[in-house]
Amino acid sequence: MIVSSTEVQNNFGKYLVLAAKEEIIVTRNGIEVARLQSMEGKPHATIQESVLKETADSYPFKGRQASYEEFVELTRDEENRYEYIDGEIYLLASPRTAHQFAITEMLVTFHQWFQGNECTPFVAPYDIRLKRLNRNDPNVVQPDLMVICDLDDHLDERDYYTGVPSLVVEVLSESTRSKDMVKKLDLYMESDVKEYWIVNPLNKEVTIYGFENNEVNKTRTYKHNETAQSFLFEGLSVELERIFKS
Predict the structure, then answer these.
(1) Closest CA to 190 of 225, 122, 147, 138
(2) Best label site of 147, 203, 228, 232, fewest CB within 10 Å?
(3) Are strands 205-212 and 215-223 parallel, antiparallel or unpaired?
């Protein structure tokens, strides 16, 4: 059975029941984006878990990589949030409480520290377009928190930022762990981001990477009640006990 994503959203319970009997292909704008299928015979998984993995973890484009133009067309006038990394399209799931708690606390700290500074902290949703070395197509990401120091010099005629943030923060979740720790680490390193913070509410750790010449120059992991210190901005620090919900 082939149905639209709107139909599934409006009648989700109905299609979960039907999925136990036959595979359901979900489409958006005529493009296959997910499948609902029975997990009978697979004791460690449920239909709901299968749905969440397909929709929150990745959004493949017809089983192949998509061009940047296809990504733009697919996500035009969409209310959902997407990222585009190395030809793959990802649908961003709604963040959980621990994620939002950490970002809110960090934003307060960053906002206070950067007051009167030429740099400005921003939070998602805010599209950032990054190019890898020797590649033409941009990647489109929405970092959880970022620090931009060249805003006035890189605003286009539509008021969109076109530069590269100096510092980027991503808060891990179960569905984004591999993407944030591997794909985004590599992307940020290669696209002239200077510092990358990975915040892990699952084990209450913060790992900071400093980049130089498109390579990891420094790295340190902070745990428990330690205070994370920026390599790039001397004096910028975050107390871990403040950002992790107990």
Answers:
(1) 138
(2) 203
(3) antiparallel
Contacts of residue 232, defined as CB under 8 A and 6 or more positions apart, other chains included, come to 166, 167, 194, 195, 210
User: Which DSSP string do the residues of 94-140 spell out, in sequence order?
Assistant: PP-HHHHHHHHHHHHHHHHHHTTSS-EEEESS--EEE--TT--SPEE
pLDDT digits (tens, 9 = 90+) for 146-173: 999 999 999 999 999 999 999 999 999 8
User: Does residue 37 surpass a pLDDT of 80?
Assistant: no
3-state secondary structure of 207: strand
How many degrees, rounded to 5, is the angle at CA 157 between CA 154 and CA 163? 20
- Residue 61 CB contacts under 8 Å (≥ 6 apart), including other chains: 31, 70, 71, 74, 88, 89
Ramachandran category for residue 192: left, alpha or beta (phi over 0 → left; psi -120 to 50 → alpha)? left
> pTM for the complete prediction?
0.75
pLDDT band with cut points at 50, 70 and 90 for residue 14? low
Kind plus residue range of the DSSP H or E element containing 79: none
Cα separations (Å) of 173 from 1, 54, 92, 115, 170? 32, 15, 11, 30, 9
